[in-house]
Amino acid sequence: MSEEMAAGDDNHGWRKERSGKSLPEVYRSMRIPKHGSWIKKFLAFAGPGYLVAVGYMDPGNWATDLAGGSMFGYTLLSVILLSSLMAILLQALAGKLGIVTGRDLAQACRDHYSRPVAMGLWVLCELAIAACDLAEVIGTAIALNLLFGIPILYGVIITVIDVLIVLLLQNKGFRYIEAMVIALIATIGLCFLAEIIWSKPDVGGVLRGFVPSSEIVTNPAMLYIAIAILGATVMPHNLYLHSSIVQTRQFELTREGKKQAIKYATWDSSIALFFALFINAAILIIAAATFHQTGYTGVAEIGDAFHLLAPLLGTTMASILFGVALLASGQNSTLTGTLAGQIVMEGFLNIRLPSWLRRLITRLIAIIPAVIVTAIAGESGTAQLLILSQVVLSLQLSFAVIPLVMFTSDRSKMGEFANPRWLKWLAWVVGVLIAVLNLYLLVQTVIGWFA
């Protein structure tokens, strides 16, 4: 086998040749030092993982974490840990696909499948991104309402400004986007660290919560929340995003260069996803220590949690920091969601739109239904819309996970970087498990609506 094939030839094993660069305005725009310590090289690769981690702590995850903690205490921490481990595996595969093949997941689907199949996958992915953006718009609007009293309808409209922020940052360079995302993640983390200190959780209970319990399976109500947590954690657009933004680094296009890039990109995303694990676990721990312990076992909505934190913890800063963390989460998710929208449209359709136009289209798709529902049904309608957005996301997830596992396990496409047998089977188990759990969650949600 030639070295080119062993390293994963760009066009070997694909139905179509690679026709363009992913995110061309920032493609291979960041230098990687050829010499120096491993820390210096790792820091040069660090960044994309934190953009990916944002999707695992977006406002759509908050409701499931709050419900799990308030209803069942610390028991479902093991589910958050399991879902984070699955996310670490899938994101590592997404990064590897981009590094080895020079294609993001959207381009890979276009170059592998027939045009009708690729178009179908594109439509499903656009629906998922619109649903994800909807959750971010609503989350940001709720945060603005809770912190500043801005009506949710006006808050939804204000989120259009986010488009301009993303455009400005990308024009300055991709590192500015990464720096802003990391700063917002740090803000969320510090807010929840303070909340945990104030809530004084039972350390023993927290540690026991990370050990799986048979009650999760035997208790139907607990099982439903557990599946909701799993379903809300892995985001399909993150797989497209990660496979693209790893290509912003100027790693050497050789076997050794790709090996190094895969190693550092995997470390980057894995460490970043442990921060996301901390955020999700923190939300559940705070809900368990504050609400479950005081008998408020029905707290599942963000607004309820905001209003109850201050009186239960004895400080108004508890509610304020909760709102600040929510606002930072919504803003962060906006940055990465709009990037994912550009990657998906350009990757599947191979057409280029001006960045501002693409982001404006993505945002309007989310804002229009949010404005209509808020105007007609008020705040209660936005809560239902948030749930619906998570259902749409769960429907799309398998259509991103299965192609990703299939491509990265294919030796004709990946060369020596194809998944070894143990990883292939593990990835398929995770993919099938996610598909089954999301299908169960969808059925139960629909039954609940009709009931």
UniProtKB/TrEMBL annotation:
<feature type="transmembrane region" description="Helical">
    <location>
        <begin position="383"/>
        <end position="405"/>
    </location>
</feature>
<dbReference type="Pfam" id="PF01566">
    <property type="entry name" value="Nramp"/>
</dbReference>
<feature type="transmembrane region" description="Helical">
    <location>
        <begin position="262"/>
        <end position="288"/>
    </location>
</feature>
<feature type="transmembrane region" description="Helical">
    <location>
        <begin position="221"/>
        <end position="241"/>
    </location>
</feature>
<feature type="transmembrane region" description="Helical">
    <location>
        <begin position="38"/>
        <end position="56"/>
    </location>
</feature>
<dbReference type="InterPro" id="IPR001046">
    <property type="entry name" value="NRAMP_fam"/>
</dbReference>
<feature type="transmembrane region" description="Helical">
    <location>
        <begin position="148"/>
        <end position="169"/>
    </location>
</feature>
<protein>
    <recommendedName>
        <fullName>Divalent metal cation transporter MntH</fullName>
    </recommendedName>
</protein>
<feature type="transmembrane region" description="Helical">
    <location>
        <begin position="176"/>
        <end position="198"/>
    </location>
</feature>
<keyword id="KW-0472">Membrane</keyword>
<feature type="transmembrane region" description="Helical">
    <location>
        <begin position="425"/>
        <end position="450"/>
    </location>
</feature>
<feature type="transmembrane region" description="Helical">
    <location>
        <begin position="360"/>
        <end position="377"/>
    </location>
</feature>
<keyword id="KW-0769">Symport</keyword>
<feature type="transmembrane region" description="Helical">
    <location>
        <begin position="308"/>
        <end position="328"/>
    </location>
</feature>
<keyword id="KW-0813">Transport</keyword>
<feature type="transmembrane region" description="Helical">
    <location>
        <begin position="120"/>
        <end position="142"/>
    </location>
</feature>
<feature type="transmembrane region" description="Helical">
    <location>
        <begin position="76"/>
        <end position="99"/>
    </location>
</feature>
<keyword id="KW-0812">Transmembrane</keyword>
<keyword id="KW-1133">Transmembrane helix</keyword>
<keyword id="KW-1003">Cell membrane</keyword>
<comment type="function">
    <text>H(+)-stimulated, divalent metal cation uptake system.</text>
</comment>
<comment type="similarity">
    <text>Belongs to the NRAMP family.</text>
</comment>
<keyword id="KW-0406">Ion transport</keyword>
